[in-house]
Write a structure and sequence with these properties.
DUF6576, serine-type endopeptidase activity, globular, transmembrane, two-stranded antiparallel ribbon, hydrolase, Membrane associated rhomboid family serine protease, 15 helices, single chain
């Protein structure tokens, strides 16, 4: 078995969508950069790099965006350099896996895409309303998974504020402080050389915070998104006709659909937020684990 085949199999067996997001980001980064190198060495041109920039990065201009609407999705899987992707993937690995243990695949998928979309939209709005940024509109393009990663990071910190990481030179630091420092850094960096990128980061962070707050109120924003994505996917699937017959006996013996346990799960999440994961009973941990497997 080749290395790539083995890696692909291990990712599938893990069942973690966080690994899948990392694999897609790293795979695309390597693919495009290898192509750029060979194009430059063999043909001494930059046509592919120009296409990559012009048709896959998210433009700040509405006039350009309307001709390339797919860029609101493609931009969040591409990166501008080695350190850019390195730090994004490290944060995604640390916080994505942690949050996925509690919320499951579907909510991580929703946070990644909706956080990225929110950050992208805030970026576009900012470049079209603020005079300082509007002067740079012609050259404004956004790229990177940072808004998506910030959505997951802040969601994780909102759900598990007292979860502790051991940081080099600093020792144990609670997750809420890590998130707070990063958000403050992004806000202050708006005055720097990449204001639009920092605004996109803050858009993702805001979405992650509101997502968890709404989830605790019983409003799961991942459900409509997953239904839309699932509906789009079903359009391209050919299904054989299905015939189902019911007898009176089947109707009498059929059991009613189980009642939603969202309130119970929300109570467990609140308990984690207040007292930490270790405060849960074995039964509560099992319920949360089963719920994360479904979502």
């Amino acid at each position: 078995m080749s290395f790539l085949s083995e890696l692909k199999q291990n990712i599938r067996q893990s069942g973690k969508v966080t690994y899948e997001f990392i694999a897609v980001n790293v795979g695309l980064f390597l693919l495009f950069n290898i192509l750029f190198i060979f194009e430059r060495l063999l043909f001494r041109t930059g046509i592919l790099a120009d296409f990559y920039h012009d048709y896959l990065f998210l433009p700040g201009s509405l006039d350009v965006l309307i001709t390339r609407p797919w860029t609101i999705i493609t931009y969040m899987f591409l990166h501008a350099g080695l350190f850019h992707i390195l730090f994004n993937m490290l944060f995604l690995f640390w916080f994505g896996l942690l949050l996925e243990e509690y919320l499951g695949r579907k909510k991580i998928i929703s946070l990644y895409f909706l956080g990225g979309i929110t950050g992208g939209l805030l970026y576009i709005i900012s470049y079209n309303i603020f005079p300082y940024l509007r002067d740079q509109l012609e050259f404004a393009f956004l790229v990177g998974a940072s808004a998506s990663v910030m959505a997951i990071l802040v969601a994780c910190a909102t759900l598990l504020p007292d979860y502790t990481f051991f940081l080099l030179l600093l020792g144990p630091v609670k997750l809420k402080y890590i998130a707070l420092v990063l958000v403050i850094f992004d806000f202050l960096s708006i005055a720097g050389s990449n204001p639009g990128g920092m605004i996109a980061h803050l858009g993702g962070a805001l979405f992650g915070f509101v997502f968890i707050k709404q989830l605790r109120k019983g409003n799961d924003w991942s459900q409509p998104f997953i239904k839309v994505v699932g509906g789009l996917g079903s359009v391209f699937k050919r299904r054989p006709p299905l015939k189902v017959k019911y007898s009176n006996k089947d109707r009498k013996n059929s059991s009613p659909r189980p009642v939603s346990q969202q309130d119970e799960i929300d109570a467990i999440l609140d308990k984690i937020s207040k007292s930490g994961y270790e405060s849960l009973t074995a039964e509560e941990k099992n319920k949360l684990f089963r719920a994360s497997g479904k979502d």
